[in-house]
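Ticket 4471: requesting a sanity check on a complex prediction with iron/sulfur cluster. Repro inputs:
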Amino acid sequence: MLKDSMLVQLGKGMFTTLRALFFEKKVTIQYPEQTRPVARRYRGRHVLNRYENGLEKCIGCSLCAAACPADAIFVESAENTDERRFSPGERYASTYEINMLRCIYCGFCEDACPTEAITLGEIYELSFTDRREAIFTKERLLLPVPTGGEPTPQVTEPGKFTRSVPAMQNPQD
Ligand code: SF4
Ligand code: SF4
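Returned structure tokens:
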């Protein structure tokens, strides 16, 4: 009697395993070859954005650093010239660093930025083997130059890029 019962239980267990193996939708993926899409509102690692012409959106104003509750951002700015222009307006970020060991992904930096230069993207692969690798410098954060744009610094037409913050558009347009 006991033997029969054990056989039944074993059969049930095997049936559950085989059903999961051959008939149920797989919940595991072959990471890192395959990656799972993130939710639309996911806040991952930051990126520094560029305009279509390749100029950097960051104007080195440090508002993101001031808004950061974790003191994770360090910005140093320098002057643009038309012969050596990184961003529209007077200044650009000559140094931009985020310490990812401090960041709590609150998004305050994104909200504070007047030019939408810093945004929290979809990147979630953030493993380090050294504390220094957790400091994301401007070079690591800046997105590549878009197709048709030019790398920075650029030589620009005098008087063309005097405005640091783009003119506000009517949100109802
Ligand atoms: S997401 Fe929050 S904690 Fe992280 S750098 Fe931005 S403001 Fe600081
Ligand atoms: S990312 Fe935005 S808020 Fe931060 S320094 Fe650059 S322009 Fe200013």
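Notes from triage: Helices lie at 2-22, 63-67, 108-112, 138-141. Leaving this open until the requester confirms.
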